[in-house]
Specification:
- By secondary structure, the chain is mainly alpha-helical.
- The protein has one domain.
- Helices cover 84% and strands 0% of the residues.
- It contains 6 helices and no strands.
- 29% of the residues are buried.
Length: 184
């Protein structure tokens, strides 16, 4: 089977990830943060276009696209849910859909890469989703524990370790997207 859409779609996702990281950094600078917010929206759209394009060839990317749309809806709902128990539930649902996006992209692209004898890149994709699974699971547990008196003390160390692990997972995901787009 030819994967004529997968490579260019993954390349768009790679570009969007890089752009989003740059915009995230620029958000802390006054006045420039308005431009960064607009840029983040543009890169979100580019990522969605890339995911949709890759989904034409790879079924898992199509599922990831659908979960991304669900995640956008949850993002809007979270603005109204508040910070109590309901807000926590929406936050957990948002995290689960975020993980599922990563899982479906990484696992389905890795499967295609294995069929095309790119086992090294496929292994990286599997590592990415597994590392993200741990990060998302710990994040969800910390989110729930933070609402329970006395147990919320346990969330302190995780508040340091999880962001570092998530940063590493994000870098691995970006490199996976790049290498996959080049291989396909």
């Amino acid at each position: 089977m030819q994967y004529t859409n997968a490579g260019p779609g993954l390349k768009k996702m790679f570009i969007a990830q890089i752009g989003s990281v740059i915009c995230s950094v620029l958000l802390i600078i006054p006045l420039i943060n308005l431009i960064a917010m607009a840029g983040a929206l543009v890169f979100l759209i580019i990522s969605l276009i890339g995911l949709y394009q890759a989904g034409k060839d790879i079924g898992g990317c199509q599922k990831a696209f659908q979960f991304t749309i669900a995640q956008l809806v949850l993002s809007v709902i979270s603005n109204f849910a508040g910070s109590g128990f309901m807000g926590t539930l929406v936050s957990v649902a948002y995290s689960v859909t975020g993980f599922l996006v990563t899982y479906f992209v990484c696992s389905s692209v890795a499967e295609v890469l294995r069929m095309r004898s790119h086992d090294d890149i496929a292994s990286r994709g599997e590592l990415v989703w597994k590392l993200n699974l741990v990060c998302y699971a710990v994040n969800i547990i910390v989110s729930v524990l933070s609402h329970i008196p006395l147990l919320n003390i346990l969330t302190g160390p995780a508040g340091i370790i999880v962001p570092v692990a998530s940063l590493i997972a994000g870098i691995l995901f970006i490199t996976f997207l790049y290498r996959s787009s080049e291989a396909l």
